[in-house]
């Protein structure tokens, strides 16, 4: 029998993981990356005798595929993808490909904001009592973990780009945290297309599967009213009483599933801010569903350390707190960051704009921000939106300079917050690189 030809577009973490799993499962594998594949990934491919190319896509080697796994970063608008689709070749995401080779219980988490924090927190709650992996947009690729670890349970952080290329993917538990305009450049600037993409997470679920979601999110609520879904619903809310699901009652989170209720006090939550109460509700609902003991959930919520680059306290210098929120790559994430500031703040913002509407930030900027430092190649939109709101607004293209300016402006008892509301690719490799440069610059003051 002729081997099936698996072509992988993109030689990053998910691409190389898929290549290893594909080879192990008997596919003929070829990896193609238009950019340059990182040295550490090249070594893995060479060591495993997997054929690859970088710096180009050779059509003749790609268009004869039986199945194609494309990196989530490659948009459908690319000519090569159009050619592949025109030939009727099956295109899948790594999540879709890998899930065919595991019988594990899958917990899939998506949302415009809070995915990484909630996935990490959920994993932290479950790992105390279950054998569980953490994958998706985070850590080692899902495909590689299935090959090497084969955990009986996985928490998966999943982006809309990964969901766009799923066909049969069916998580036992799906979590949708929120839907706010993000990545609209990938969805023809039509918010509805992006919403539909997020809801693909429950597309294959049945009655015995669970859907955990934010019942305070109007976008989610209105979508659910218009589309019948099969899953068992477990909403969470800060404002309304929920019969099956989670809600906030004074300072307690109450979670009820099949008449079995647990109560969690919020006063000792390790993570601060209203949005983190929601993230805790979502994670605890998953844990309660999977029969994790109440005591374990409570202790884990209290000792969770948080995620790097997400409202991360870096240092206090001369009584000024420096905070790294480089992971805030959209306006809504920055909304939460500014909302949680309790002192006058010097705000470092900017980068690659994805069609942002800054209006929802105006109240906080007027109330809490004393100076703005624009850190991007093109800061025109920021200057136009915020120029008249603060006395000091400056532009720079260097992180070290941004931090030095902030150091001069901020006074004792105030904050310096990096919360860019934009993608990082204009000046940095990615948001991690941006966050690390910020932390290095602060430590070098």
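-> sequence recovered:
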């Amino acid at each position: 029998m002729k081997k099936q030809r698996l072509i992988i577009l993109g030689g990053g973490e998910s691409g190389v993981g898929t290549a290893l799993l594909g080879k192990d499962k008997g596919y003929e594998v070829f990896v193609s990356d238009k950019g340059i594949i990182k040295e550490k990934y090249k070594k893995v491919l060479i060591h495993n005798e997997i054929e690859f190319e970088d710096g180009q896509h050779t059509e003749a080697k790609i268009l004869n595929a039986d199945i194609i796994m494309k990196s989530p970063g490659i948009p459908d608008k690319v000519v090569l993808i159009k050619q592949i689709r025109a030939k009727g070749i099956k295109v899948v995401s790594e999540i879709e490909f890998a899930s065919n080779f595991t019988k594990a219980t899958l917990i899939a988490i998506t949302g415009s904001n809070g995915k990484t924090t909630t996935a990490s927190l959920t994993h932290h709650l479950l790992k105390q009592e279950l054998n569980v992996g953490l994958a998706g947009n985070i850590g080692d690729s899902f495909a590689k973990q299935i090959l090497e670890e084969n955990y009986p349970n996985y928490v998966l952080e999943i982006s809309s780009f990964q969901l766009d290329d799923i066909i049969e993917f069916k998580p036992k538990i799906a979590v949708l945290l929120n839907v706010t305009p993000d990545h609209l450049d990938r969805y023809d600037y039509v918010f509805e297309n992006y919403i539909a993409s997020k809801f693909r997470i429950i597309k294959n679920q049945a009655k015995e599967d669970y859907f955990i979601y934010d019942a305070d999110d109007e976008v989610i609520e209105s979508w659910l009213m218009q589309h019948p879904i099969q899953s068992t619903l477990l909403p969470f809310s800060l404002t309304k009483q929920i019969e099956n699901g989670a809600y906030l009652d004074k300072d307690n989170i109450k979670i009820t599933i099949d008449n079995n209720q647990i109560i969690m006090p919020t006063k000792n939550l390790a993570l601060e801010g209203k949005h983190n109460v929601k993230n805790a509700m979502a994670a605890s609902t998953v844990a309660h569903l999977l029969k994790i003991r109440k005591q374990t959930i409570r202790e884990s919520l209290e000792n969770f350390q948080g995620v790097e680059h997400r409202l991360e306290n870096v240092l206090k210098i001369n009584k000024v707190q420096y905070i790294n929120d480089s992971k805030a790559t959209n306006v809504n994430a920055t909304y939460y960051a500014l909302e949680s500031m309790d002192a006058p703040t010097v705000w470092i913002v900017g980068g690659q704009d994805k069609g942002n509407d800054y209006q929802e930030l105006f109240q906080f900027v007027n109330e809490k921000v004393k100076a703005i430092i624009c850190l991007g190649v093109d800061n025109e939109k920021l200057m136009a939106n915020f120029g008249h709101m603060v006395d000091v607004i400056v532009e720079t293209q260097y992180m070290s300079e941004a931090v030095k300016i902030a150091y001069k402006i901020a006074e004792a008892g105030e904050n310096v917050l990096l919360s860019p509301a934009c993608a990082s690719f204009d000046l940095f490799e990615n948001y991690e690189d941006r966050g690390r440069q910020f932390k290095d610059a602060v430590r070098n003051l």
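The chain has a mean pLDDT of 92.
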